[in-house]
Design goal:
Order of helices and strands of chain A: HHHHEHEHEHEEHEHEHEHEEHEE
Helix content of chain A: 40-55%
Strand order of the largest sheet of chain A: 2-1-3-4-5-11
Number of strands of chain A: 12
Number of helices of chain A: 12
Radius of gyration of chain A: 25 Å
Oligomer: homodimer
Strand content of chain A: 5-15%
Largest sheet of chain A: 6 strands, parallel
Structural class of chain A: alpha/beta
Shape of chain A: elongated
Chain lengths: 342, 342
Amino acid sequence: MKATINDVAKLSGVSIKTVSRVMNKEPSVRQLTREKVQAAVKELNYQPNLAARNLAGTKSFTIAYVYDNPNAYYVIDMQEGILSACRQQGFELLINPCDSQKENITEDIIDTIKHARVAGLVLTPPFSERPEFVKQILAQDIKVVRIMSGDVAPDELSPCVMVNDRDAAQTITQHLIDLGHTKIGFIAGGAAHMSTIERYKGYRRALKANNIAFNHNLIIEGEYSFESGVNGAKKLIAEKVTTENRPTAIFSCNDEIAAGALFAARLMNINIPEQLAIAGFENSPFSRQTWPKLTTADQPNKQIAHDAASLLISQIRKQKGKSETSQYVPQLMVRDSTGRHS
Amino acid sequence: MKATINDVAKLSGVSIKTVSRVMNKEPSVRQLTREKVQAAVKELNYQPNLAARNLAGTKSFTIAYVYDNPNAYYVIDMQEGILSACRQQGFELLINPCDSQKENITEDIIDTIKHARVAGLVLTPPFSERPEFVKQILAQDIKVVRIMSGDVAPDELSPCVMVNDRDAAQTITQHLIDLGHTKIGFIAGGAAHMSTIERYKGYRRALKANNIAFNHNLIIEGEYSFESGVNGAKKLIAEKVTTENRPTAIFSCNDEIAAGALFAARLMNINIPEQLAIAGFENSPFSRQTWPKLTTADQPNKQIAHDAASLLISQIRKQKGKSETSQYVPQLMVRDSTGRHS
DNA sequence: TTAAATAATGACAACGCTGTCAATCAGGCG
DNA sequence: CGCCTGATTGACAGCGTTGTCATTATTTAA
């Protein structure tokens, strides 16, 4: 029924050890032998038994995805991207949702991954943005790949997959400027998030590139939530700024905030996009489910995750061939929530 | 460092086989012995090696979650619920996202779970609603637990965790009736989904219970999408019905449809809830991120999933003690999108 | 051409657990 | 008190791989 390494060995006329060598892409196997074995593997549709591998070997074929993120669409995409890389490479995936705020969370995680003999971790924010955490993981001789916001890796701790929020934010802001807006509000996400900082930098850059004076009254500190968008937009429109300085556009740090801003505008009888343009960030499903639909920036999370996991696995396999860091720039998606400023 | 069964055996002064018996809750171990072993297990913080278990034993300690669902929040909740049950019981979880429409999907899935030596499957719609599929899985001697819509299991194939959408839909409709509405539109989800059928039944029941005549012009066939909600609401308001018969309330089969209906109402300058009450179903996060926020029905997906997985595991362990089927009724959550009909 | 060096291969013992079956123990009965 | 019965327990052989190290080809250098 299910072929074992023994069957392959017999069929190809070599020892099981040699088959093992071929399966693990070890050197020191003659090309001819390798081909014979591969043919047998194919014929028998042989796949190594993971349990046996884990038991016998010192190597591990498991990686983990440790996350704490309220955005289910993000998590699912990440997970599926990682999963596809794992399947491709014959790895197993351990899913580890957890509470990043919990006391001793680092120890808990180390416990879990030690017990499951995990060889590496894919980390997304907030974990990827905690150098101390990463160091502690690395100290356990566990490989790490981080997905984070920025253009270049902030340090040499691990390979990174960078998401260039700054450039994307600059592009969005430029889009608003191109539409004629000059008074552009900015509602930030949590200040602790790199993504917020990067998006803010992109916003500032776009202003500068267009010689638009920066006005700190147009900046609202917030967090990544609908509620925060509601409050931020209210402040921006009603409180903080005089009527003549009132923004004609708002760049929200993500779609959820933008949806909140939309909500607030509705409450105040402000028409979108005629009286106020609103842009989000993330291209989450509900950016298409607001009225009007949100202009936003799209990032290919599944592919990012697939990349990160592949990178991690090649680290584990010590195939240093692959380039160590890649970068993605989210793409502007123009929809109905932004419009020309009259 | 990591304790093995041998360490436990030595410490408690019994053979490793006896330790194994205790770990597997087998009978034929004297109470005193059992306690000695358990003490040693605790002291050494011993956890059996899963790889070795899988290799040596005929039993499997892996279950799988096979899904195809565009609703990430649903999937994440399910997954986390299943995961928590697995951790509790020392099981591993294999995540298997897939395309339920693909040709030969059943064979693909069987391949996957055979190779991973999966002992059981947690199934959600659409898979849980395909008796033929379930039969083919069961024919492989793989246990199944289904999560599905309804009040009682539709057959004896497997234990089920039922979600009583009918009663919940009746409650929502009753809520609308209590607010004074009598012309209540219904926008269906995909007709192939049990949940749609059940929610429709609940709607009809509520009408009947209140002696409100059923008007088929108020029923729109649709699917579970924002787009469908937009179109459905448009039809309901503008096309299908004369002005005097125009609905004053709409029950949408889920929140996404309701959000679409909200959107359409905006387009047509209809005020919510003054001129039109709209209710959704699911309590998805964006039901709190529309304007106004949606009245909906909430179901504890994480707990449902935890239950289902526990049930599955006890099936696998042949602990027939547990009750075979449980039922959950989603709870009405009143928010701003429904209001009194003047 | 031959010895030495190197590459390729194989034999065999783990890995940590469970299944089988034999051995031991406790208690009941004649 | 000895024997029988069933409940407990243990010895031992795998499970399907990989690591180690010995063995056998093959190549290189002299």
